[in-house]
UniProtKB/TrEMBL annotation:
Species of the source: Micromonospora carbonacea
Region of interest (Disordered), ranges: 540-576
One Pfam family in the UniProt entry: NAD_binding_8
Family annotation (InterPro entries): FAD/NAD-bd_sf
Protein's name according to its UniProt entry: Phytoene dehydrogenase-related protein
Lineage: Bacteria, Bacillati, Actinomycetota, Actinomycetes, Micromonosporales
Amino acid sequence: MPEPSTARETMIIIGGGLGGLSTGCYAQMNGYRTRTFEMHELPGGCCTAWDQGEFTFDWCVSWLLGSGPGNDMHQIWLELGALQGKEMRDFETFNIVRGRDGRTVYFYSDPDRLQEHLLWHSPADARLIRDFCAGIRTFKKLLNAYPFLKPVGLMRPWERWRMLAAFLPHFNTIRKSITTLMTDYSARFKDPLLREAFNFILYERHASFPVLPFYFQLAAHAGRTAGVPQGGSLGLARSIEQRYLRLGGEITYNAKVDEVLVEDDRAVGVRLSDGSEHRADIVVSACDGHTTVTRLLNGRYLNETYRRLYTETIDEPGQVYPGYVSAFFGLNRPYPDADPCTTHLLTPQEATDLVGVGEHPSMNVQFRSRHYPELSPAQTSVVFVTFFSDTDVWRQLVEGPEQASRVRKGELLHTLRVRRGRAYYAAKRQVRNALLGLLDQRYPGFADAVVAHDIATPLTQIRYTANYAGSIAGWQPFVDGGETMEKELEKHGPVLPGLANFYLAGVWTTIGGLIRAAASGRHVVQFICRDDGRPFTADVDDVAPPPTQVVVPVPAKPSPTSAAEGHPSVLTRQGA
């Protein structure tokens, strides 16, 4: 803890994603003067969108944990000014999984409705279906007790006991759900479609996930606290940016940090790519974790745990979230019968041209204009298609650098397009054409309606965020990397051993997700306040009225004919 004579007042934050913006907001609330450096020209990091003609292609938020009241997650968003004055849209289905034979499973938000639908599909699986839906109901009760406001490493013994006491009545459900992989759980179903579809509830197949995150997500959806915010992903980031600026924070865009300045084992500032140096009492890195420890600090200040994580574990299969291929299509017509979100299971033949797709091929198709109608013109549609893709496959196609800085109109920019070579662009065209063919089969007239499109690969993610291997969210939970990182932070806090005045925030200090990135900013400032002997304080932003909620309904049940033939059921959008 610093002596009073050396009280820390100024802070530099590396990275203007949600973790960095959150850190800045809470630091300003607690009397620190902060400046954030972001290499892109926009806030938000992965929480972003971009314009393509009349359309806005929204890349990130398909659901937002904490969008509704009654839990710590919602409290954090309100403190950050992220939701105020906006409409939160909750869908009555979380996801729909369509099998290769056209049969369709609707994963309804309401566990009672879900149970009825699943029993309709497979009465022979009644016991397992009722067990799963009972777990959702249990986790719906647990959401309000799940702690996000304070890191476990700062909890007093009585606070830990209080947290455990809230979980104790549901211990068996928690224990079984965290020790049973979904791949094993789903294998118990007799119905072949349910046996496969359960693995794709969270849009893609997460082979390392136990049942617990499926319960947590569906319970949040059931509790109307996993909707989408009006204005979309970039709108969410802009709202937090404005909250940060109102609190007195400064943010500099197109500013790439090349080095953390260290003197006598103390972080004293940063050096930017233009050679300028900026000093502060505290430095917080909220950017890519691998970049932070291996480049900005040149591999110094790594204990054995961090050395192993960032030089060995990070390259082991399944330790970090994979990269995405993302395709956007702007259509000159509406598709009122199209469901908001559907995962289509694909045959190996259908997936042949989807570069980097895994051994369990699928594509998640979102009619994004159902989520964000304000981001496209009336009587049009925006469709967002994603699949996990191996970054190394794309890297093998590239001739030039993955990221490069250059001057445009007298300004040094760091996220401009780079030339990647003919093979790379041919692969992108191959993916686009394959997806258009698949979509045209499922949504007749789709290909002829396309008037705008864009394809992003894991290398696009690297160009904009510098995330290691194009990972979408850093360390995976429930495997060695994520578990080890959590234990290290709980034991020592968000610091590096032997380096004073330096802290870590963002998704690489947690286990992924926007709410966790936002919570990491709150947590790191709590540690900083503890180290400085300051009481931590936070307040809700009152610049706009509280958010409102609307529910987007779906049919009571698909008819046997439509379920067998895979015809999309009609959705009517009311109040949104």
